[in-house]
């Protein structure tokens, strides 16, 4: 019944043979391997984490893990360490994302212009490299390139007359180095997403607009921008989620230091759970992070998967 | 608003800009390879050397004296097995999502997207405790299974899209012939979906190969993957820069090759299809 109404809504003629009809058993046999696997490895651990988050669960004394109710959650929500890490995570996002979008848009506009095909192909392939580079390697590379004495970054700065900067030994500088590295790795992503958006502008419309005005800004603002909105929305949500996930690069580059100046939320949870051994508290922090992620993915579904 | 008078940047300006973009993207990669060819003495020069006697001793040392060769094999085993499993389990689910209507479809999508976005630490905490209680820390199978949490969604997403692009008339004709859904899936649609399956396999491989956090938490020696070994070089006071960068190069080069092969699909895959 439901099947039929949906087909009618989609305008599928009623009399055609419907390939979408299958018995419940057939559908189950197609779906269950993946769904059961994901339930076992993806959902069961989460349920266990909820259980852990309501206990005083410390890896150094596992023989006694008393039930403490929502105490861990209360601790997390009033804990300035947690909110500081959250604040740093969003600071990274707020500093890096506008640069990534602006530079990405610039790159996309250049690559979208006709001509210089060979050079542009090379440029487009080069953009793949930062994105594909193993995040942990980016962090290691950062540690070597930003090194005070042996680093090439200070050498290059020296060429333009800037005195060596102690990048990784100073809280603010270390954070700046992380922002810079995040910009390096993810500007290409923004560029390629926006370039894909630019190619969706119908050629005739763009040509007509260019006959009307010589200003690239007018074309961008009134002709191209509407086609860029979906890409920009995707970048916004995905970069937020990826910054909340960010662990590998920062962990290998600074371990969250000096002090806690680069300790982002995922690094904090890892430290509390595996270096301070307080699994209960770490699980509570992780559950709060999960709730934020669920909100983000709801938004993403809202914007991009309306019809599935 | 005042009209901006600037029009098309001149050809020379475009060439300069493009060269700058290429240089910006490639310089760290170049520096990594360069450092990997330095002996420790050259690597510790201030200011850093750009021209020096190239030495391959770092590669020799990491491959034959340290655990790097074994860790690369570990990475390969894990990435290949998890990719194979993801394809095996994911393609039929993708077919169902592309072809059948059923309740809970939206919830399923929501679940996949959440898996794409959630921080690995959220799963790493409980997974560590569970795996430890089974005495299965430091085994390949654990990594293979947990990597499915991000590989299955990506395989299912890409393959669903691929199956949707296969005209339904083909199945309809086969149904009239009396073929079962499984037969249509195996004999008709799976071969036609081969390009999508290949792309999703590449993605799955890249993500597994690059992964660090689960590897750090769930492995010690036996099943330690290459990124985790590279990170462990950073412990201690005198850092073996050349060896770290040689290991990094060995890790990164295969990924970059795969990423370049799939470069046209990269954005689609990373945005779960939101951007075509």
From TrEMBL, chain A:
Location of the protein in the cell: Cell membrane
Keyword terms of this UniProt record: Cell membrane, Membrane, Transmembrane, Transmembrane helix, Transport
UniProt xrefs under InterPro entries: MetI-like, MetI-like_sf
Domain ABC transmembrane type-1: 86-300
TM segment ranges: 30-51, 90-111, 123-146, 174-198, 219-238, 281-301
A Pfam family assignment: BPD_transp_1
PROSITE patterns: ABC_TM1
Similarity annotation: Belongs to the binding-protein-dependent transport system permease family.
UniProt protein name: Sugar ABC transporter permease
Originating organism: Chelativorans salis
Automatic annotation (TrEMBL), chain B:
Domain ABC transmembrane type-1, first and last residues per copy: 72-262
Superkingdom to which the source organism belongs: Bacteria
UniProt KW Transport keyword: yes
CDD domains in the record: TM_PBP2
Membrane topology: Multi-pass membrane protein
Family membership noted in the UniProt record: Belongs to the binding-protein-dependent transport system permease family.
Stated name of the protein: Carbohydrate ABC transporter permease
Source species taxonomy: Bacteria, Pseudomonadati, Pseudomonadota, Alphaproteobacteria, Hyphomicrobiales
């Amino acid at each position: 019944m439901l099947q039929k109404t949906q087909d009618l809504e989609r305008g599928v003629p009623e009399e055609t043979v419907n390939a979408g009809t299958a018995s419940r058993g057939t559908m189950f046999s197609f779906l269950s391997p993946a769904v059961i696997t994901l339930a076992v490895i993806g959902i069961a651990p989460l349920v266990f984490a909820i259980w852990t988050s309501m206990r005083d669960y410390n890896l150094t004394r596992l023989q006694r893990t008393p039930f403490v109710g929502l105490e861990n959650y209360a601790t997390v929500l009033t804990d300035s360490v947690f909110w500081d890490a959250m604040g740093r995570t969003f600071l990274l996002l707020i500093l890096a994302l506008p640069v990534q979008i602006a530079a990405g848009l610039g790159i996309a506009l250049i690559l979208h212009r006709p001509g210089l095909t060979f050079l542009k192909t090379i440029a487009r392939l080069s953009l793949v490299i930062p994105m594909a580079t193993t995040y942990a390697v980016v962090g290691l590379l950062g540690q070597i390139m930003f090194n005070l004495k042996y680093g090439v970054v200070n050498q290059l700065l020296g060429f333009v007359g800037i005195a060596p900067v102690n990048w990784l030994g100073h809280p603010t500088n270390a954070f700046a180095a992380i922002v810079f590295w995040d910009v390096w790795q993810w500007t290409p992503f923004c560029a390629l997403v926006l370039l894909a958006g630019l190619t969706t502008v119908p050629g005739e419309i763009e040509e007509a607009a260019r006959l009307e005005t010589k200003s690239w800004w007018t074309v961008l603002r009134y002709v191209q921008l509407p086609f860029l909105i979906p890409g920009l929305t995707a970048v916004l949500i995905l970069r937020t989620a990826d910054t909340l996930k960010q662990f590998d690069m920062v962990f290998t580059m600074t371990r969250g230091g000096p002090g806690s100046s680069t300790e982002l939320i995922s690094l904090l949870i890892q430290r509390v759970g595996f270096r301070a051994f307080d699994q209960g508290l770490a699980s509570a922090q992780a559950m709060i992070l999960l709730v934020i992620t669920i909100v983000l993915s709801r938004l993403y579904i809202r914007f991009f998967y309306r019809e599935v | 608003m005042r009209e901006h008078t600037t029009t098309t940047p001149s050809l020379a300006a475009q060439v300069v800009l493009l060269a700058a973009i290429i240089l910006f993207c490639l310089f760290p990669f170049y520096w990594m390879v360069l450092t990997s060819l330095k002996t420790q003495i050259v690597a510790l020069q201030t200011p850093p050397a750009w021209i020096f006697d190239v030495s391959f001793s770092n590669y020799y040392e990491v491959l034959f004296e340290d655990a790097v060769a074994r860790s690369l094999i570990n990475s390969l085993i894990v990435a290949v097995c998890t990719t194979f499993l993801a394809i095996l389990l994911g393609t039929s689910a993708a077919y169902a999502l592309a072809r059948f209507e059923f309740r809970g479809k939206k919830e399923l999508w929501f679940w996949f997207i959440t898996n794409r976005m959630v921080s690995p630490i959220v799963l790493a905490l409980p997974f560590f405790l569970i795996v430890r209680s089974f005495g299965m820390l430091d085994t390949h199978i654990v990594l293979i299974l947990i990597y499915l949490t991000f590989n299955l969604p990506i395989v299912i997403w890409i393959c669903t899209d691929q199956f949707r692009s296969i005209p339904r008339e083909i199945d309809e004709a086969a149904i009239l012939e009396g073929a079962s859904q499984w037969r249509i899936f195996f004999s008709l649609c799976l071969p036609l979906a081969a390009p999508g399956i290949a792309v999703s396999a590449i993605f799955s491989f890249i993500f597994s190969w690059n992964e660090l956090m689960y590897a750090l938490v769930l492995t010690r020696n036996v099943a330690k993957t290459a990124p985790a070994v590279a990170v462990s070089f950073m412990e201690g006071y005198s850092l073996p820069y050349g060896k770290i960068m040689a290991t990094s190069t060995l890790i990164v080069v295969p990924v970059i090759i795969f990423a370049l092969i799939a470069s046209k699909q990269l954005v689609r895959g990373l945005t779960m299809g939101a951007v075509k």
